[in-house]
Amino acid sequence: MGSGGLADSVSLGVLAAAMPRDAVDTAIAVTRRGAKRSGGKLPPHVMAYYVPALALFAEDDYEEVFTRLAATLTSWGCWDPDWDIPTAGGITQARQRLGAEPLAEVFDQVAVPVAEEFTQGAFLGSWRLMSIDGLEWDTPDTAVVS
Fold it and tell me: Which residues fall within 8 angstroms of residue 3, CB to CB, at 6 or more apart?
């Protein structure tokens, strides 16, 4: 798969709309996961966008996803074009430093129902109808527990 195409721009644009930079920065501050040093190639806000990008491009390896994301982050002003794409090991370390807490905080800030009270078909009586579409998880088989 190539990087930087229209599909990437659309997918990552949707990600940016769902995770505004101010929400990411607030989540990082609230969870105290700010950068330990200035000038690092993988600041927390970059990693906060990288983790969901892994789900968008699940078939690609770490570096390919980062290449796709770096092109988009450059256009958003969140990536220094002089930086090199990090290695898989560097990405893993940065993900571990970030942890799950900032992403959970972003989710708490931005996750809201799409339909409003009077949106046709959104409710069945007093129950809000929900659907999860396009989400697929591969999990290993487990032994049957009796």
Answer: 64, 67, 68, 71
| Structure confidence by residue, pLDDT tens digits, 42-62 | 889 889 999 999 888 888 988
Place of tokens 């390919």: 64
Please list, in sequence order, all residues whose beta carbon lies within 8 angstroms of the beta carbon of residue 71, skipping any fewer than 6 positions away. 3, 4, 8
pTM to 2 decimal places: 0.72
Check residue 134 and give its pLDDT.
64
The span from the CA of 55 to the CA of 48, in Å, is 12
Domain count, the chain: 1
Domain assignment of residue 141, yes or no: no
**53 class by beta-carbon count within 10 Å (0-12 exposed, 13-18 middle, 19+ buried):** buried
Could you tell me the residue range of the domain that residue 54 belongs to? 6-110
d(CA 98, CA 51): 10
